[in-house]
């Protein structure tokens, strides 16, 4: 049970200036520029981080390459990696509330969501991949008796990870878990507006016994630190979660450097398709509201488009609006609120601009639409609902990454499919129906990496999360998460005595 007094004590702690974590220690390079860190809770600066240069990134990559080449992680028994990763997960769990409060001060997620999704979620993910580390086998190919064909799975080497600001620990763990369990060494760059918790868990990794150089964290802006990682000639694989424009630049940087493999989990404009035969419309409306208003809509799989059969559209809209009005937006470290702040001022401006564009295009603003609580200096935006939305409107095609819902009507299944597939994205989707045949048809027809039927956020670590179209490539989560961080090597051995 969360205690407000404990949260307030953790909130009041002074956070010293932060430094890069390289070779199992914090490195204070006087030549490195600094970036102020302001809290979305009140807009006030409360610490600073490094704006890492090429030199800083070089130091981190050199540490990672040295550790990989030494082999005390890459060539050790997988059971040893498993032991360290499990100990690391336990330490994160033990410090979970401290880490969660630190993260909320940095990116504004409400404390209940932050605690469950960030440190506790990350610990669970690391534990999952730790347990899998010693269960990855090679293969023996079917050949003639005179040949032995072996298929080895080896770590790729040095992995670069670039992590977003909405759920930095959760998303980082999805990538760190398989990358480290497979024996790779990592250079990780958090978003400049959500770096603090990743620096903290790197420190805990060293305490858990992870060898020096295996996990390095460098902070800074994308055009400086991120670009240096993406262009680095000694990084073998780059995995990124974030926006489409940045993803495109990372592909270009790969072509300009060493053709490193680049895996991208990009944006989404996920459809939430509701048929008239959906059971329990109250539950549908409640989960529909949660799917877009949780964490102020700053969720890559947020179901930001409701595509609802016209015969129940009016009833569904009223129920969704009722649930939307019940959300309590405010100080994310107060247990009286269940929605926190927008992570940074730049994203708040994006949301405001997208809402104004929706209004100018003729959509009906039924709820919200304007910044709130600005007197406190924080970045808050209420649940916002648009009605009378046409599928071609920007509010229905462009990712807002905020608490903004567009409601669109349909009459036939084919029309619903056409609307669902009418954006550049293909990350996630939701279908509500009591008809099994309808469900199977929609699963086959929707162009998305995930189709959830009669639920939202039901998927766990056992299944992959990945996108199609301009939502990216490769998968996070599940055993498929290892695929990005493993090289397959063939050994072809002649057994012919002649």
Features:
single chain; 498 residues; alpha/beta; Aldehyde Dehydrogenase, Chain A, domain 1; Aldehyde Dehydrogenase, Chain A, domain 2; 2 domains; 7-stranded mixed sheet; 16 helices; 21 strands; globular
Describe this structure in words.
The termini are far apart. This protein has 2 domains: 4-266, Aldehyde Dehydrogenase, Chain A, domain 1; 271-461, Aldehyde Dehydrogenase, Chain A, domain 2, CATH 3.40.309. The chain is 38% helix and 19% strand. The chain is of the alpha/beta class and 498 residues long. A hairpin with a 6-residue loop joins strand 5 and strand 6. The mean pLDDT is 97. The strands form 6 sheets. A 7-stranded mixed β-sheet has the order 14-15-16-13-12-17-18, sandwiched between helices. It contains 16 helices and 21 strands.
Coarse structural class: alpha/beta
Which parts are unreliable, with pLDDT below 50 for 5 consecutive residues or more? none
How large, in whole angstroms, is the Cα Rg? 23 Å
The appropriate CATH architecture of the largest domain is 3-Layer(aba) Sandwich
* Total DSSP E strands: 21
Shape: globular
Q: In which range does the helix fraction lie?
A: 25-40%
- What is the count of DSSP helices, taking H or I runs of 4+ residues? 16
CATH topology of the largest domain: Aldehyde Dehydrogenase, Chain A, domain 1
What is the rounded distance between the termini? Answer: 73 Å
Q: Report the major sheet.
A: 7 strands, mixed
Strand order of the largest sheet: 14-15-16-13-12-17-18
Strand content: 15-25%
Q: Averaging pLDDT over every residue, what do you get?
A: 97
In the CATH hierarchy, what is the superfamily of the largest domain? Answer: Aldehyde Dehydrogenase, Chain A, domain 1
Number of domains: 2
CATH class of the largest domain: Alpha Beta
